[in-house]
Design brief:
Layout: H1 3-34, E1 48-55, E2 61-70, E3 75-88, E4 105-117, E5 124-133, E6 137-146, H2 158-172, H3 180-190, E7 192-193, E8 198-199, E9 203-210, H4 215-240, H5 247-266, H6 269-276, H7 281-284
Antiparallel strand pairs: 1-2, 2-3, 3-4, 4-5, 5-6, 6-9, 7-8
Helix pairs in contact: 1-4, 2-4
Length: 295
């Protein structure tokens, strides 16, 4: 593909991620407004956006992004971040990234989200999608749900069923390029804590290095993953918004959040890669829950 062609694809992917960011932030702010004051006292908050810049391993400018953070009465902590970065991969990473061994230059754009609600009956959630260009080009991403109460961490829980159905529908609408069974299994295998021999949550989908040979179809699939998340997660929040919780529920929530910290710091490729390549530390670690316990 010629230079103008790949530049147009980069611009379209970046524009989509930023538009999705805006739509998700708006939807979550509406939920913040809707939260009943009897359970969620105080003022409904709004996202605060903070731009940042990075340098690559050579010290040259390497792009940046915008952190969008909200600390509210419904969402104890939620971040919806977009970044577009470029430069050269450091030598120690070049054999780990498709196409980087031939040419270390890269460009990447994406959206990443993590939400930690105050109410233990509302599941935590993670979503990200991205477009990466080296001497190759591909999409990656997915979404997974993490109920924090044991009684809700079952495959027949209504929230679990609805979330899986949304991710399945996003894949099956693009069955010519997306394999739901493969991506569901990939998610289950990836979001697993080997040292505890347990899953982080109830799963979802995960995919990487996605290049079917039909870029338009791959973009459309990645867009529908984002739309599926935008539709299903606010629905799950509203289902549980008015459900009260006990001190024991809160204790269980804080302990379960510890699993989130363990996974993100020990195993998550995105966290490790970002910290080792000069990414924005505050943005990378914004996935950490605001309160957590290891009793």
């Amino acid at each position: 593909m010629n230079v103008s062609g790949i530049e147009e694809r980069k611009a379209r992917a970046r524009s989509w991620f930023e538009r999705l960011r805006d739509d998700i932030c708006a939807a979550l702010e509406i939920l913040e407004d809707e939260a009943p004051g009897s359970l969620y006292p105080g003022r409904a908050e709004r996202f605060v956006r903070t731009p940042w810049q990075r340098s690559d391993h050579t010290g040259r400018p390497g792009g940046g992004g915008v952190m969008s953070m909200m600390r509210g009465r419904l969402f104890e902590k939620v971040g919806v971040h977009c970044s577009t970065v470029h430069g050269e991969f450091a030598p120690e990473f070049r054999n780990q990234i498709p196409g980087a061994a031939d040419d270390p230059a890269f460009w990447a754009s994406g959206i990443s989200l993590i939400a930690h609600p105050c109410n233990p009956n509302i599941p935590a959630v993670h979503m990200n999608t991205r477009f990466v260009v080296t001497s190759k080009a591909w999409f990656g991403g997915g979404a997974d749900l993490t109920p924090v109460l044991e009684r809700r961490r079952t495959q027949d829980d209504p929230d679990t069923l609805a979330f899986h159905a949304a991710m399945r529908a996003a894949c099956e609408a693009h069955a010519d390029v997306a394999d739901y069974g493969k991506y569901k299994n990939w998610c289950d295998e990836y979001f697993f804590l080997p040292h505890r021999k347990e899953a982080r949550g109830i799963g979802g989908i995960f995919y990487d290095w996605h290049d079917s040979g039909d870029w338009e179809a791959d973009l459309a699939f990645t867009q529908d993953v984002g739309r599926a998340f935008l539709n299903i997660y606010p629905e799950l929040v509203r289902r549980n918004l008015a459900t009260a919780w006990s001190a024991a529920d809160r204790e269980e929530q804080l302990i379960r959040r510890g699993r989130y910290v363990e996974f993100n710091l020990l195993y998550d490729r995105g966290t490790i890669f970002g910290l080792r390549t000069g990414g924005n530390v505050e943005s990378i670690l914004s996935s950490m829950p605001p309160e957590v316990k290891w009793p």
